[in-house]
Automatic annotation (TrEMBL):
One of its GO terms (molecular function) is metal ion binding. Binds 2 calcium ions per subunit. Disulfide bonds join C34-C93. It is found in: Secreted. Coiled coil: none annotated. Residues 3-202 form the Pentraxin (PTX) domain. This is Pentraxin family member. Keywords: Acute phase, Calcium, Disulfide bond, Metal-binding, Secreted, Signal. Its cofactor is Ca(2+). Pfam families: Pentaxin.
Length: 202
């Protein structure tokens, strides 16, 4: 149980990452991914990378610069421009719905204007899911200068689009519906220089 714990990615740049194991029985037509990050990086870095053998950026949360997030589904992306962080924890949730192609992005419990992305697409189920690196091939192909350095916590993946109330609950660390990946019952494997530590502050 990683309650009140964080992954500390100690080096910059880094070849370290964390492999997450999810029980995916079938392809995804809807999903929500949420996580909390704390970093002083100004270069591009990957937060959450979900690759299939057919598509290395099947789901990707990527931060090319401090005032921008990119959300990929099936290799295509939309950009969400954000205020440059005050060097504090940032909580992001991104959700996607195949039927409408609507991509939602929430930062620190607030929604950004919705965008259109990959309507009718299906996200493959046989996936390599990594924190801290961006995959250019299934489970590998890393560029060290896209690596994450800093602290990550509260990582979740659901096979549904969360309601606004649940998006806010995720930000506030309240009770959440059962997830494919849940921070409090995470199945993971650390590869390289990543340390699990207690969170310094709430």
């Amino acid at each position: 149980d990683l309650y009140r714990k964080v992954f500390v990615f100690r080096k910059d740049p880094s070849d370290a990452y964390v492999v997450l194991r999810a029980r995916l029985e079938q392809p995804l037509h809807n999903f929500t991914v949420c996580l909390r990050s704390y970093t002083d990086l100004s270069r591009p870095h990957s937060l959450f990378s979900y690759a299939t053998k057919a598509q290395d950026n099947e789901i990707l949360l990527f931060k090319p610069k401090p005032e921008e997030y990119r959300f990929y589904v099936g290799g295509k992306f939309v950009t969400f421009r954000v205020p440059e962080g005050r060097r504090d924890w940032e909580h992001v949730c991104a959700s996607w719905e195949s039927a409408t192609g609507i991509a939602e992005f929430w930062l620190n419990g607030k929604p950004w204007p919705r965008k259109g992305l990959q309507r009718g697409y299906t996200v493959g189920a046989t996936a390599a899911i990594l924190l801290g690196q961006e995959q250019d091939s299934f489970g590998g192909g890393f560029d060290l200068y896209n690596s994450f350095s800093g602290e990550l916590t509260d990582v979740y993946l659901w096979d549904t689009g969360l309601s606004p109330d649940k998006m806010r609950a995720a930000f506030l660390s309240l009770r959440l519906p059962p997830a494919l990946l849940a921070w409090n019952s995470l199945s993971y494997e650390v590869k390289g220089d990543v340390v699990v530590k207690t969170r310094l502050r709430e």
